[in-house]
Amino acid sequence: MQNFTFRNSLLFYLFLLLNLFSFSSYASSYIQANSIAGKITDGNGGAVVGATVSIKNSATATSTDANGNYLLTNVPLGSQVVIVNMIGYEKSETNINIVAGANKLDIALISASDELEEVVVIGYGTARRKQVTGSISSVTPEEFNRGVVSSPDQLLAGKVAGLTVNRSGGDPTAGSTMQLRGPSSLTASSSPLYVIDGIVGANIELIAPDDIVSMDVMKDASSTAIYGSRAANGVIFVTTKRGKAGAPVLSYSGYAASESVSNRVNVLSAAEHKAFVEANGLAVAPTETGFETDWQDAITRNGVSHNHNLSLTGGSEGTRYNASVNYFNNQGIVKRSGVEKIVARVGVDQNAFEDRLKLSFNLANSINTSTHIDYGIFNGAARFVPTSPIMTDDPEYAQYGGYFQVVGRTGYMNPVSMLNLRDENRSNNTLLGNFKADLKLVDGLVWSNVLSYQRTHWDKNYYMARTDFDSFALGRGFADRTALKHIDKILESYLNYSFTADLHTFEAMAGYSYQKTKNDDGLRGTSVGFMSDDLLDNNLNLGSLPEGYNPYSDFPHIKESLLISGYGRLGYNYDEKYLLSASIRRDGSSKFGVNNRWATFPSISAAWRLTREDFMQNQQLFSELKIRAGYGVSGNQNIDPYRSIILFGPRDGQFFYNGKWVNAYGVSQNENPDLKWESTSMFNVGLDFELWKGRIGGTIEYYNKETKDLLYEYDVPSPPYQFNRLLANGASMSNKGIEVVLNANVYSNENFRYSTTVNFARNVNEVGSLSSNIENIGVSQRYEGGIGLEGWTGQTASIVLPGQPLGTFYVAKYVGYDEVAKRTIYQKPSGELVTQDQISAPDDYQIMGYALPKFTYGWNNNFRYKSWDLNIFLRGVYGNQIFNATRADLSRLQQANVTNISKDALEEGIFETPLIASSRFLEDGSFLRLDNMTLGYRFNTSQAKYFKQARLYLTAQNLFTLTDYTGVDPELSLGGLSPGIDNRSYYPKTRSFIFGVNFTF
């Protein structure tokens, strides 16, 4: 049924695109045929590629080719205005008198100095770059990360100073974790708020990368406070392609990619393992010898991925349309994993009443189906003895489907059997419809109303075969199905007013917001005891409930919430020299306690453009110099509804009532009527500059970010509390940092250009208090980062401690190895040297390192020579450490007869089995990665009949990584309370080679 949905959806949108294109072409054929030809150049005489050239108040439009040439046909006779639009340049309008036949017009564009004239999106409005008083970073498609991208957020990795985008491993089904200016929560989500074409909280999966025009990242609270309780983690505005007046423009972009494993766990081969065990007098069980198995090779493959995007835009000055369809198929490098996605969008913009009313309608649908694997296969592929077989004909193993297994060994399972005997499929079908009406009431006053409806159907199907080695499924099978629906409804109504008198410009905005959310509306079913695996999880009725299983214990319950807000902003601009902005938002949320459902989020910011001062007019160094400062407060409400009220649920055990044993129910959550938002206040000061008319430019920023009333779950006594855990506010945390962005147009002439951009970010995180705002409830510290290795029961590697950052490694201090005694030596906090059996965890542990990096950086380089273009992008982190639990698990030299070991452990030569978490396994996680390199060629289409633009390109992703880390990859997730732990379940990073095309017709 899923394939049917994909195929028919694709055919429908293709049909719609072709009909729109055919209709527009038919209509344009009746216009009088005369032409304008010419070349669009920049200030240095270089060709401007991809500029939009159109006739004012007409549907006639085109784009410049690889040489900057354009051709407009069917131009009416008489006086006309030729308009040229291109990002980074000022809009050009040129009058020309059209005579019958061919007309020629060359136009030289004026560079918008450091894109100061470029329009950026701010909350409920737009502003020119030079008028911005807050910290906003913009990324355009030319700067996006190229290659196989499963989610648009990956386009930003390394591109924005202070924004960390981590996609741990190469799993195409996994999302990214994002942090802006460091971690700022202990339990709530750190994801930023997405605003897509003005729709607050829209799902980023609804956007195909090829449909994005820009992504604007609001980083400081003076910018984000207008979104109040949802903006503490930053706000990312996504602007998508819209229809433009002019002839229809049909575009296709697509690529095919080959992906392979970039690095593997460095374990012994079968021959190396055999030689080691024989040399050290170890004996491998007879059933586990005689074969040569590369377990990592057995579960991986070379993946093939492809992406196709077809879009159509066009219309007249009064009516404009856009439509697109995107198909993406990413085959994972681990067998049986992958994702298939289709995204379709249509939009119409209509002007009415002499352009006083603008109506916009948009409809987007994303259908995402994915196949998942059990991450336990990675630990199995590393540990399983390489001389063991994958399959065997021995009748003893028929109950396991013919897969070789070792009975009685805990945590030791054939990874290929796990891969092939477990099925997990998920699907997401998200629909977003929105309508916007902008009404110009009087000059300068616009009333905007936005209605949006977003619905997601989420399904998960999971099945473990009857031959699965897991005791829960062995001999009976196990099936689990979940189907949920999420609905989000939003109404936004706001007024924007602007007024200019002489050198004074005033702006004001006021609005109201209503958002109602309903999540987890659905069902879950679980069953065991199947007679056959043929139907997998498609008929739960063929099985029965597991013994002792309460079907309502994990049953999804509907979560409804309501957010009502009022907001406003005032702005003042004197001669584009002195800029001032202030905003306030009042939010009321049903998620929080009855005593704290309303909160206020203010902000104020100012900027001084020194280059507008008289005393700067005679200097030649600075073409732009602006000082900005701002302060604001924003919040975080990323928790489930009903966390403030008392909840009842199933409890352990049963009781005898009315002749029957009845499941016990009781309090499963304490109430907290004082539960409220996490609140983040931030002071930000920035310097924007450009030298030598934009030859060199950049930004330097300092911020101080303080978060209080952090949500944290505390242990509480029962009684007086009815449950032993309580979610409360009170903890605090701070982040302070510096961000630097430098860009330079190094060299430019008619044939060759080289530009480069470097970004640097330094953030210092510190946990403040862990005490709650409820008397006598709090903790002095908390141990996190459970490892779970064999023999490491209850051990952790991290600590949450006031005065220290998140990701503080708290382990035993490793001193060295005594070759004579064959014992590892450790140092207690007192200075006493002891062996590992004398270490008491965690009492004898110490702070030994930090998971958060000292700084991150990115370096982007663009070259263009005639029709060729080359982009090279490097990024990295420095100063962080990783606890390599994978290496610890593979360092059991004395147990090499029952498990594989790493080559690093072999070189280390320590024969004592590690049984404690220690600094021995802390490694430098710094790295420099050549993340992306793209070589492209633009064809000269000036004489082509059907092509307006044509480009071919080759891209390589993750070409190499320079690092001292010995694990699979140093890029781990930095989210949560225990970041930086490589704990045996790392989906391998991929190396990709891509061939792609971009065509415009």
Automatic annotation (TrEMBL):
Chain ranges of the TonB-dependent receptor-like beta-barrel domain: 425-959
Domain of life: Bacteria
Keyword terms, alphabetized: Cell outer membrane, Membrane, Signal, TonB box, Transmembrane, Transmembrane beta strand, Transport
Signal peptide bounds: 1-27
Matches recorded under InterPro entries: Beta-barrel_TonB (IPR000531), Beta-barrel_TonB_sf (IPR036942), CarboxyPept-like_regulatory (IPR008969), Plug_dom (IPR012910), Plug_dom_sf (IPR037066), TonB-dep_OMP_SusC/RagA (IPR023996), TonB-dep_OMP_SusC/RagA_CS (IPR023997), TonB-dep_rcpt-like (IPR039426)
Name of one Pfam family that matches: CarbopepD_reg_2
Subcellular location field: Cell outer membrane
Membrane topology: Multi-pass membrane protein
Domain annotation TonB-dependent receptor plug: ranges: 130-235
The keyword Transport appears for this protein: yes
Similarity comment: Belongs to the TonB-dependent receptor family.
Name the UniProt record assigns to this protein: SusC/RagA family TonB-linked outer membrane protein
Organism: Sphingobacterium litopenaei
